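Friendly challenge for the regulars: who can give me the C-alpha coordinates for this chain first? No prize, just bragging rights.
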Amino acid sequence: MFSIEKFISYLNLLKKILNLFCKLKTIFFLLKLILKILKKIDNILVIRLSSMGDVILTTSFIRQLRNKFTDTRIDFITSKSFAEIYKFNPNINTLWEYDKQFKLNEIAELKNHIKMDLKGRRYDYVIDLQKNLRSKILRSGLGDKYLLINKLRLNKLSLVYFKKPILKKIIPIPELYRLTANPLLVDDDGEGLEIWLKSDPKYYFTPKNSDSKKMKIAVAPGAYHFTKRWQKEKYLELIKNLKNNFNAEIILIGGLQDKEVTDWLKSQIDFEYEDFSDSTSILKTTEAIDNSDLLISNDTGVIHIAAARKVPVLAIFGSTVKEFGFLPFRTKYKIVEKGVSCRPCTHYGLDKCPRGHFDCMSKITVDDVLKAFSNFVETELEF
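First reply, four minutes later:
Bragging rights claimed.
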Protein backbone atom coordinates (compact mmCIF):
# COMPACT_ATOMS: atom_id res chain seq x y z
CA MET A 1 0.00 0.00 0.00
CA PHE A 2 1.32 3.40 -1.09
CA SER A 3 2.01 5.67 1.89
CA ILE A 4 3.00 9.28 2.33
CA GLU A 5 6.35 8.10 3.80
CA LYS A 6 7.18 6.19 0.62
CA PHE A 7 6.19 9.18 -1.50
CA ILE A 8 8.52 11.44 0.48
CA SER A 9 11.36 8.90 0.21
CA TYR A 10 10.88 8.76 -3.58
CA LEU A 11 10.99 12.55 -3.70
CA ASN A 12 14.22 12.58 -1.69
CA LEU A 13 15.72 9.97 -4.02
CA LEU A 14 14.69 12.01 -7.05
CA LYS A 15 16.22 15.10 -5.45
CA LYS A 16 19.53 13.23 -4.94
CA ILE A 17 19.50 12.05 -8.55
CA LEU A 18 18.84 15.59 -9.80
CA ASN A 19 21.63 16.99 -7.58
CA LEU A 20 24.02 14.36 -8.93
CA PHE A 21 22.95 15.17 -12.48
CA CYS A 22 23.58 18.91 -11.89
CA LYS A 23 27.02 18.15 -10.44
CA LEU A 24 27.91 15.93 -13.39
CA LYS A 25 26.66 18.59 -15.78
CA THR A 26 28.82 21.21 -14.06
CA ILE A 27 31.86 18.89 -14.13
CA PHE A 28 31.23 18.19 -17.83
CA PHE A 29 30.97 21.91 -18.56
CA LEU A 30 34.21 22.62 -16.69
CA LEU A 31 36.03 19.79 -18.48
CA LYS A 32 34.77 21.10 -21.81
CA LEU A 33 35.97 24.60 -20.89
CA ILE A 34 39.40 23.31 -19.81
CA LEU A 35 39.75 21.33 -23.06
CA LYS A 36 38.93 24.46 -25.03
CA ILE A 37 41.54 26.45 -23.11
CA LEU A 38 44.16 23.69 -23.43
CA LYS A 39 43.59 23.48 -27.18
CA LYS A 40 46.54 25.11 -28.93
CA ILE A 41 45.78 28.68 -29.88
CA ASP A 42 47.75 29.59 -32.98
CA ASN A 43 46.71 33.18 -33.54
CA ILE A 44 44.95 36.04 -31.79
CA LEU A 45 43.86 39.45 -33.09
CA VAL A 46 43.36 42.43 -30.76
CA ILE A 47 41.46 45.54 -31.91
CA ARG A 48 41.69 49.02 -30.37
CA LEU A 49 41.38 51.88 -32.86
CA SER A 50 41.39 55.04 -30.75
CA SER A 51 42.22 57.25 -28.97
CA MET A 52 45.94 57.70 -28.19
CA GLY A 53 45.52 57.17 -24.44
CA ASP A 54 43.26 54.15 -24.89
CA VAL A 55 45.73 52.52 -27.28
CA ILE A 56 48.61 53.09 -24.82
CA LEU A 57 46.45 51.53 -22.10
CA THR A 58 46.30 48.29 -24.12
CA THR A 59 50.07 47.74 -23.87
CA SER A 60 50.05 46.01 -20.47
CA PHE A 61 47.34 43.61 -21.67
CA ILE A 62 49.26 42.79 -24.86
CA ARG A 63 52.34 41.96 -22.77
CA GLN A 64 50.26 39.79 -20.42
CA LEU A 65 48.74 38.05 -23.44
CA ARG A 66 52.25 37.39 -24.76
CA ASN A 67 53.32 36.03 -21.36
CA LYS A 68 50.47 33.52 -21.57
CA PHE A 69 50.89 32.62 -25.25
CA THR A 70 54.61 32.74 -25.92
CA ASP A 71 54.48 30.98 -29.32
CA THR A 72 51.13 32.31 -30.55
CA ARG A 73 50.83 34.84 -33.33
CA ILE A 74 49.42 38.02 -31.76
CA ASP A 75 48.33 40.76 -34.19
CA PHE A 76 47.01 44.22 -33.42
CA ILE A 77 44.78 46.61 -35.38
CA THR A 78 44.80 50.31 -34.56
CA SER A 79 44.30 53.63 -36.28
CA LYS A 80 47.13 54.84 -38.47
CA SER A 81 47.46 57.91 -36.21
CA PHE A 82 48.42 55.73 -33.21
CA ALA A 83 50.34 52.90 -34.88
CA GLU A 84 53.62 54.48 -33.71
CA ILE A 85 52.80 53.35 -30.16
CA TYR A 86 53.45 49.74 -31.25
CA LYS A 87 56.24 50.44 -33.74
CA PHE A 88 58.99 48.83 -31.62
CA ASN A 89 56.83 46.67 -29.36
CA PRO A 90 58.17 43.07 -29.49
CA ASN A 91 54.99 41.54 -28.06
CA ILE A 92 53.05 41.64 -31.34
CA ASN A 93 53.73 39.89 -34.62
CA THR A 94 51.88 42.06 -37.13
CA LEU A 95 50.58 45.61 -36.75
CA TRP A 96 47.63 46.36 -39.02
CA GLU A 97 46.86 50.03 -39.64
CA TYR A 98 43.29 51.28 -40.02
CA ASP A 99 42.32 54.73 -41.29
CA LYS A 100 39.07 56.19 -40.00
CA GLN A 101 38.57 57.70 -43.46
CA PHE A 102 38.41 54.22 -45.01
CA LYS A 103 35.34 53.51 -47.10
CA LEU A 104 33.71 50.08 -46.99
CA ASN A 105 35.68 48.84 -50.01
CA GLU A 106 38.95 49.92 -48.35
CA ILE A 107 38.01 48.12 -45.13
CA ALA A 108 37.26 45.02 -47.24
CA GLU A 109 40.68 45.39 -48.89
CA LEU A 110 42.41 45.55 -45.48
CA LYS A 111 40.53 42.45 -44.34
CA ASN A 112 41.53 40.62 -47.52
CA HIS A 113 45.19 41.47 -46.82
CA ILE A 114 44.79 40.03 -43.34
CA LYS A 115 43.13 36.86 -44.64
CA MET A 116 45.86 36.40 -47.25
CA ASP A 117 48.51 36.83 -44.56
CA LEU A 118 46.76 34.13 -42.51
CA LYS A 119 46.74 31.91 -45.63
CA GLY A 120 42.96 31.60 -45.64
CA ARG A 121 42.67 30.74 -41.95
CA ARG A 122 40.81 32.66 -39.26
CA TYR A 123 42.10 33.94 -35.97
CA ASP A 124 41.34 31.53 -33.13
CA TYR A 125 40.29 34.56 -31.06
CA VAL A 126 39.48 38.14 -31.96
CA ILE A 127 39.53 40.41 -28.89
CA ASP A 128 37.64 43.62 -29.57
CA LEU A 129 38.59 46.31 -27.05
CA GLN A 130 36.81 49.03 -29.07
CA LYS A 131 33.37 47.50 -29.56
CA ASN A 132 31.73 49.99 -31.87
CA LEU A 133 30.36 49.84 -35.42
CA ARG A 134 33.78 50.29 -37.02
CA SER A 135 35.39 47.50 -35.02
CA LYS A 136 32.37 45.26 -35.63
CA ILE A 137 32.76 45.68 -39.40
CA LEU A 138 36.50 45.04 -39.08
CA ARG A 139 36.26 41.91 -36.95
CA SER A 140 33.39 40.30 -38.88
CA GLY A 141 34.55 37.08 -40.53
CA LEU A 142 38.10 37.25 -39.16
CA GLY A 143 37.73 35.01 -36.10
CA ASP A 144 36.43 31.67 -34.90
CA LYS A 145 35.66 33.11 -31.46
CA TYR A 146 35.13 36.70 -30.32
CA LEU A 147 35.74 38.34 -26.96
CA LEU A 148 34.15 41.79 -26.61
CA ILE A 149 34.95 44.38 -23.97
CA ASN A 150 32.34 45.29 -21.37
CA LYS A 151 32.40 49.08 -21.59
CA LEU A 152 30.60 49.51 -18.24
CA ARG A 153 28.16 51.95 -19.84
CA LEU A 154 25.76 51.89 -16.88
CA ASN A 155 28.56 52.91 -14.53
CA LYS A 156 29.51 55.81 -16.83
CA LEU A 157 25.90 56.94 -17.18
CA SER A 158 25.39 56.76 -13.42
CA LEU A 159 28.48 58.89 -12.86
CA VAL A 160 27.48 61.51 -15.43
CA TYR A 161 23.78 61.78 -14.56
CA PHE A 162 23.64 60.84 -10.88
CA LYS A 163 27.26 61.60 -9.83
CA LYS A 164 27.51 58.15 -8.22
CA PRO A 165 29.30 55.06 -9.51
CA ILE A 166 27.56 51.69 -9.62
CA LEU A 167 30.84 49.86 -9.10
CA LYS A 168 32.17 49.63 -5.55
CA LYS A 169 35.77 50.10 -6.65
CA ILE A 170 37.56 51.74 -9.55
CA ILE A 171 38.55 49.33 -12.34
CA PRO A 172 41.58 50.73 -14.19
CA ILE A 173 41.09 50.51 -17.96
CA PRO A 174 44.12 48.22 -18.48
CA GLU A 175 42.55 45.80 -16.00
CA LEU A 176 39.23 46.02 -17.86
CA TYR A 177 41.09 45.04 -21.04
CA ARG A 178 42.61 42.02 -19.29
CA LEU A 179 39.25 40.95 -17.88
CA THR A 180 37.90 40.88 -21.45
CA ALA A 181 40.18 37.88 -22.02
CA ASN A 182 39.03 36.01 -18.90
CA PRO A 183 38.17 32.84 -20.87
CA LEU A 184 41.86 32.69 -21.88
CA LEU A 185 43.01 32.83 -18.24
CA VAL A 186 45.41 35.71 -18.81
CA ASP A 187 47.23 36.56 -15.57
CA ASP A 188 48.04 40.03 -14.27
CA ASP A 189 51.83 40.30 -14.12
CA GLY A 190 51.63 43.30 -11.79
CA GLU A 191 53.53 45.53 -14.20
CA GLY A 192 52.44 48.72 -15.95
CA LEU A 193 52.18 50.17 -19.43
CA GLU A 194 54.98 50.30 -21.97
CA ILE A 195 56.03 52.30 -25.02
CA TRP A 196 59.19 50.96 -26.58
CA LEU A 197 61.72 53.33 -28.11
CA LYS A 198 64.20 52.31 -30.79
CA SER A 199 67.03 53.00 -28.35
CA ASP A 200 65.72 50.57 -25.71
CA PRO A 201 68.11 47.60 -25.56
CA LYS A 202 65.99 46.06 -22.83
CA TYR A 203 62.85 47.25 -21.14
CA TYR A 204 63.04 48.07 -17.45
CA PHE A 205 59.96 48.61 -15.30
CA THR A 206 61.72 50.77 -12.76
CA PRO A 207 61.59 54.53 -12.18
CA LYS A 208 64.60 56.45 -13.43
CA ASN A 209 66.96 58.25 -11.07
CA SER A 210 67.94 61.70 -12.29
CA ASP A 211 71.59 62.75 -12.19
CA SER A 212 70.71 66.40 -12.65
CA LYS A 213 70.70 68.85 -9.76
CA LYS A 214 67.76 70.60 -11.39
CA MET A 215 64.36 69.01 -11.68
CA LYS A 216 63.21 68.62 -15.28
CA ILE A 217 59.47 69.15 -15.52
CA ALA A 218 57.49 68.36 -18.66
CA VAL A 219 54.37 70.51 -18.95
CA ALA A 220 51.51 69.51 -21.29
CA PRO A 221 48.92 72.34 -21.21
CA GLY A 222 46.72 71.10 -24.04
CA ALA A 223 43.75 68.77 -24.37
CA TYR A 224 41.44 67.90 -27.24
CA HIS A 225 38.30 68.96 -25.35
CA PHE A 226 37.82 72.38 -23.77
CA THR A 227 36.45 71.03 -20.46
CA LYS A 228 39.69 69.10 -19.90
CA ARG A 229 41.89 72.22 -20.25
CA TRP A 230 43.15 74.16 -17.28
CA GLN A 231 43.42 77.82 -18.27
CA LYS A 232 46.55 78.80 -20.22
CA GLU A 233 47.09 81.91 -18.05
CA LYS A 234 47.36 79.66 -15.00
CA TYR A 235 49.81 77.39 -16.78
CA LEU A 236 51.98 80.41 -17.55
CA GLU A 237 51.97 81.48 -13.89
CA LEU A 238 52.70 77.89 -12.82
CA ILE A 239 55.63 77.55 -15.23
CA LYS A 240 57.16 80.84 -14.04
CA ASN A 241 56.81 79.70 -10.40
CA LEU A 242 58.47 76.37 -11.13
CA LYS A 243 61.34 78.15 -12.85
CA ASN A 244 61.85 81.00 -10.38
CA ASN A 245 61.05 79.32 -7.06
CA PHE A 246 62.15 75.74 -7.69
CA ASN A 247 64.90 76.32 -10.27
CA ALA A 248 63.22 73.76 -12.52
CA GLU A 249 64.02 73.14 -16.17
CA ILE A 250 60.85 73.27 -18.26
CA ILE A 251 60.01 71.01 -21.20
CA LEU A 252 56.94 72.20 -23.13
CA ILE A 253 54.88 69.32 -24.54
CA GLY A 254 52.10 69.52 -27.12
CA GLY A 255 50.72 68.26 -30.40
CA LEU A 256 49.37 70.16 -33.40
CA GLN A 257 45.91 70.23 -31.77
CA ASP A 258 47.44 72.18 -28.85
CA LYS A 259 49.09 74.79 -31.06
CA GLU A 260 46.88 77.71 -29.98
CA VAL A 261 47.72 77.16 -26.30
CA THR A 262 51.42 76.35 -26.73
CA ASP A 263 52.03 79.21 -29.20
CA TRP A 264 50.54 81.66 -26.70
CA LEU A 265 52.68 80.28 -23.89
CA LYS A 266 55.82 80.50 -26.04
CA SER A 267 55.07 84.13 -26.75
CA GLN A 268 54.91 84.83 -23.01
CA ILE A 269 57.81 82.76 -21.61
CA ASP A 270 60.95 84.89 -21.27
CA PHE A 271 63.49 82.24 -20.23
CA GLU A 272 65.12 79.18 -21.81
CA TYR A 273 63.10 75.99 -22.05
CA GLU A 274 62.99 72.86 -24.20
CA ASP A 275 60.29 73.02 -26.85
CA PHE A 276 58.55 69.81 -27.90
CA SER A 277 55.26 71.46 -28.79
CA ASP A 278 53.75 71.08 -32.30
CA SER A 279 54.96 67.48 -32.24
CA THR A 280 53.59 65.15 -34.89
CA SER A 281 55.37 62.11 -33.47
CA ILE A 282 54.19 60.14 -30.43
CA LEU A 283 57.67 58.64 -30.06
CA LYS A 284 59.35 62.07 -30.11
CA THR A 285 56.97 63.19 -27.38
CA THR A 286 57.76 59.98 -25.49
CA GLU A 287 61.50 60.71 -25.70
CA ALA A 288 60.91 64.23 -24.34
CA ILE A 289 58.81 62.98 -21.41
CA ASP A 290 61.29 60.16 -20.80
CA ASN A 291 63.95 62.82 -20.28
CA SER A 292 61.93 64.51 -17.52
CA ASP A 293 61.53 63.88 -13.79
CA LEU A 294 57.84 64.77 -13.67
CA LEU A 295 54.94 65.47 -16.01
CA ILE A 296 52.30 68.10 -15.23
CA SER A 297 49.33 67.68 -17.53
CA ASN A 298 45.59 67.84 -18.01
CA ASP A 299 43.62 64.58 -18.26
CA THR A 300 44.91 63.57 -21.70
CA GLY A 301 46.72 60.70 -23.38
CA VAL A 302 50.06 62.28 -22.49
CA ILE A 303 49.72 61.10 -18.87
CA HIS A 304 49.67 57.51 -20.15
CA ILE A 305 52.88 58.12 -22.13
CA ALA A 306 54.49 59.20 -18.85
CA ALA A 307 53.09 56.16 -17.03
CA ALA A 308 54.46 53.90 -19.76
CA ARG A 309 57.97 55.29 -19.13
CA LYS A 310 57.57 55.30 -15.32
CA VAL A 311 57.66 59.11 -15.12
CA PRO A 312 55.60 60.47 -12.17
CA VAL A 313 52.46 62.43 -13.09
CA LEU A 314 50.74 65.45 -11.56
CA ALA A 315 47.40 65.54 -13.37
CA ILE A 316 44.80 68.31 -13.36
CA PHE A 317 41.27 66.90 -13.74
CA GLY A 318 38.34 69.11 -14.75
CA SER A 319 35.11 67.66 -16.16
CA THR A 320 36.27 64.03 -15.80
CA VAL A 321 36.85 61.93 -12.67
CA LYS A 322 39.15 59.09 -11.66
CA GLU A 323 36.18 56.72 -11.28
CA PHE A 324 36.13 56.37 -15.09
CA GLY A 325 39.35 54.35 -14.73
CA PHE A 326 41.67 56.48 -16.88
CA LEU A 327 44.31 56.98 -14.21
CA PRO A 328 48.09 56.95 -14.68
CA PHE A 329 48.58 53.20 -14.44
CA ARG A 330 51.15 51.80 -12.01
CA THR A 331 53.34 54.86 -11.78
CA LYS A 332 53.52 57.50 -9.06
CA TYR A 333 50.83 60.13 -9.55
CA LYS A 334 48.81 62.83 -7.85
CA ILE A 335 45.54 64.33 -9.05
CA VAL A 336 44.51 67.95 -8.51
CA GLU A 337 40.72 68.36 -8.70
CA LYS A 338 37.78 70.21 -7.20
CA GLY A 339 34.71 68.34 -5.96
CA VAL A 340 32.10 70.54 -7.60
CA SER A 341 28.57 69.12 -7.60
CA CYS A 342 28.10 69.09 -11.39
CA ARG A 343 31.18 66.95 -12.00
CA PRO A 344 31.51 64.79 -14.02
CA CYS A 345 29.40 66.31 -16.77
CA THR A 346 30.88 64.05 -19.42
CA HIS A 347 32.88 60.90 -19.97
CA TYR A 348 35.02 62.19 -22.85
CA GLY A 349 35.05 65.99 -22.51
CA LEU A 350 33.01 68.78 -24.06
CA ASP A 351 33.61 71.87 -26.22
CA LYS A 352 32.11 74.13 -23.55
CA CYS A 353 30.88 74.00 -19.97
CA PRO A 354 27.18 72.96 -19.98
CA ARG A 355 26.46 75.38 -17.10
CA GLY A 356 28.63 78.22 -18.30
CA HIS A 357 30.72 78.67 -15.13
CA PHE A 358 33.45 76.05 -15.71
CA ASP A 359 33.94 75.75 -11.94
CA CYS A 360 35.70 72.37 -12.19
CA MET A 361 38.74 74.11 -13.71
CA SER A 362 38.20 77.76 -12.75
CA LYS A 363 38.28 76.92 -9.04
CA ILE A 364 41.66 75.18 -9.32
CA THR A 365 44.20 77.88 -8.51
CA VAL A 366 47.91 78.02 -9.26
CA ASP A 367 48.50 77.78 -5.49
CA ASP A 368 46.49 74.53 -5.44
CA VAL A 369 48.76 73.00 -8.06
CA LEU A 370 51.95 74.35 -6.46
CA LYS A 371 50.95 72.92 -3.06
CA ALA A 372 50.18 69.55 -4.66
CA PHE A 373 53.51 69.71 -6.49
CA SER A 374 55.49 70.51 -3.31
CA ASN A 375 53.76 67.76 -1.35
CA PHE A 376 54.27 65.26 -4.18
CA VAL A 377 57.97 66.05 -4.45
CA GLU A 378 58.55 65.86 -0.69
CA THR A 379 56.57 62.70 0.03
CA GLU A 380 56.81 60.65 -3.15
CA LEU A 381 59.62 61.76 -5.43
CA GLU A 382 62.47 62.42 -2.98
CA PHE A 383 64.11 64.79 -5.42
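The chain is about 40% helix and 15% strand. The domain at 38-184 is CATH 3.40.50.2000 (Rossmann fold). Your move, everyone else.
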